[in-house]
Amino acid sequence: RMSSSDEQVTKATPVGVSSIGEVELILTADEAIQMCEEEERKEEQQYEEARALLGNLSEDQCTYSLGSMLRQPLYACMTCISAGGQPSGVCLGCVETCHREHDIVEMYTKRDFRCDCGNERFNQFTCKLIPDKQPANHNNKYDQTFSGVYCVCHRPFPDPRPDACSDSMSQCCVCEDWFHYSHLLLDPNDPIQLRDDSEYAEFICHICMSGPANVVKCYHESLGAFSKSNKEELKTDDEYKQNQPCRRPKEPLVKDEENADQSEKQGYATFWKFGWRKHLCRCESCMNVYFMSGPGGLTFLSDWDDSVCIYEEKNRQATVSLEELTASQVSRPQQHLMGLMVEEIYSNFAKFIGQKCNNGGLSNNTITHETVQEFFKLHDKKSEKLKAKILGKARLPPDNCNGK
Question: Do residues 106 and 75 lie in contact, with contact meaning Cβ atoms separated by under 8 Å?
């Protein structure tokens, strides 16, 4: 709530203030708790995102010795590019060790990639973790994301321009470029009101659907996330089994070129259900089709383990949650003492403010920064022993001790 000398102060149970110019913001206890909870949610969300992306990767080990990894987080160094290097990808360990003070762009994950740090794509730059590397990684594939730009708009993210597109971005599971939703070409005959990326597992951009990924277009009617004819979740029993006969859906009848409508000529972005790849036919004939589709082929589409969904899930299973991590770092007696500390602060602050009000120590019943600072100075002196325990400076009983 806002107050100034010209405004009436709204009465509440205040617990803190912050200053904005000449105006003071007074927080009620409920508002303060709500702000703390919101910060905790943000912290947990950031931790979960990092956990899904990084898993158990080490910050001081290069992944080069592991070869072309099925999938790993990659980064592009703009500093090294500006110094004469070529667009390249480096692993987490090299970002933290070799490029710590550099301008880094995060590309999330890429498939079948080997760390480039220190090879011939860099201009006289040597990897500190593995100095002796081959000059080039010939199986690596590069695109515009390695130069820090994305989408058909070829802009960085975040984009510093005032008129930049504000859409969130999603990664195409074929080309692995990132696209703004409003920049995707969607089928006008099948409008989609996309709210967020939780509504689908993966998507393929219109560029790929106009090219090599067109080979899976025949599956979209049954496996698409927004399919009108099949809105149910995919069933495990319907997944393709080894040595089954070909299950590729028949292609729809195509009109002659002169009378064909635009949707039959143009590829549009497609959105897919969770687990859709496991339902693709993997007979010998279809696997040959995937293999021959575009440079490098599309055989990875028949492998659900290649998907970012599975990569993230495996990382979550291999690591601990923020709650588990906190619990593992702070013993049970310390957790209990931290709870006592919070309770003590709330209780003592309420008493402190009550005494101030009764003694006329609050001007216009408004809590200022000075009031809060005065309380914490007094509180700190009284709570030194308790704080020492929380910080581990006092001897505590072992976790398995049931005594007092």
Answer: yes
Q: Which pLDDT tens digit goes with each residue over 135-181?
A: 999 999 999 999 999 999 999 988 999 999 988 899 999 999 999 99
Task: Report d(CA 230, CA 279) in Å as an integer.
Answer: 14
Residue matched to tokens 């079948």 = 112
> Is 179 in a helix, a strand, or coil?
strand
**Closest of 373, 10, 353 to residue 2, by C-alpha:** 10
| Alpha-helical runs (H) found in 105-253 | 206-209, 220-223
Chain centroid, CA 161 distance in Å: 23
Segments in 67-165 forming alpha helices (H): 78-82, 92-97
Neighbours of 30 (CB within 10 A): 11
Query: Cα–Cα distances in Å, from 6 out to 20, 25, 109, 183?
Result: 15, 14, 55, 49
Q: Are 305 and 106 in contact (CB under 8 A)?
A: no
Residue of 63, 78, 150 whose CA lies nearest to 112 = 63
b/e code 242-251 from CB counts within 10 Å (16+ = b) = eeeeeeeeee
